[in-house]
Amino acid sequence: MREPYRTSTITFRVDPQVPEPRPIALAGEAIRAGGLVAFPTETVYGLGANALDSAAVEKIFRAKSRPANDPLIVHIADLSQLPGLAVSVSELAYRLLERFAPGALTLVLNKREAVPANLTAGMDTVAVRMPDHPVALALINAAGLPIAAPSANRFSRPSPTTAQHVADDLKGRVDIILDGGPTGIGLESTILSLVGEAPQVLRPGGVSLEELRAIVPDLTYQPQYLADEAAAASSPGSMLKHYSPRATVVLFRGDDDLAVWAAMRAFADEHDHVGAMTLEREASRFADLDVTVESLGADLDAAAARLFSALRSLDSRGLKWILARAPDSSGLGLAIGDRLLRAAEGDVIDVKPRR
Ligand code: AMP
Ligand code: MG
What number does the ligand 1 atom closest to the CA of 126 have? Predict the structure, then answer.
């Protein structure tokens, strides 16, 4: 394993709507000088570096302890930056960008030679997105460069949705943290590959499949969860273990509400040091048990925004178990279910309906 990247970390607070010019200029200079800057986007916080400088890109892998076979997403602020990164960009790609850029959609395209090999894990494709956040866009513009940025967490930890999460994982490994408050969506972007025979979703995320299908009716999505690191290497993002807290996450799945709650209560009754993540209206199900409950809010949008933060928060309380229920897979539910399944490392209890 390579040595982690070490540096001293400075945090600047920035207004998320109208970022102050001085911290943005300093952060832009840090990027130009080959340093690392963590910044808010509308999905999660990113750990950024000059995408066209392989030494700067290498620092991202070292700061995160991220394996070299997991490629990064490049962030742009303007479509004029796209031809510098990708070749043979199709008409469909431009239609998608017209609708979803800026936004939580990442496109996988054929890469231009100038894109460093370590950024794409040696593949001839590159993932590109335009974030919908004033701080991210101001930073990219100040740097005057496309910025490579994976989520700003240590490898396999829950993604960061606040600057504090970034500092918890990366203090001493990132030059500047731009603190623009909590992120809006709270889940990573949807990744759509346009390099195969048919458009293929590689990761569900902030843009739902329903929204994408309005423009790409023939898209496919084949969830892949590989427990074996060697097997996962050829298919980036397919590793099952991800977003893992120290506690063991147990995911309950089933359509019969009462049966699912009964199963979760029984588990909580039989184990010690149990936490649970639930929607607000379901929190009372555990009120009479010795369970630490973290509310995910009123609906799926709120749950997406709070999911990673709730995982980190429960984990900091020294619990052994974190119980969660898989949402139905429509809209953001698909991405939430995907993150929960990875946090649970596939540990799912399917609850049969009662009659
Ligand atoms: P993160 O930003 O930390 O969520 O990680 C970026 C993810 O983007 C990786 O884990 C990959 O799944 C995906 N990705 C990046 N580049 C490519 C690519 N060229 N082809 C397929 N997937 C990619
Ligand atoms: Mg990540």
Answer: 19
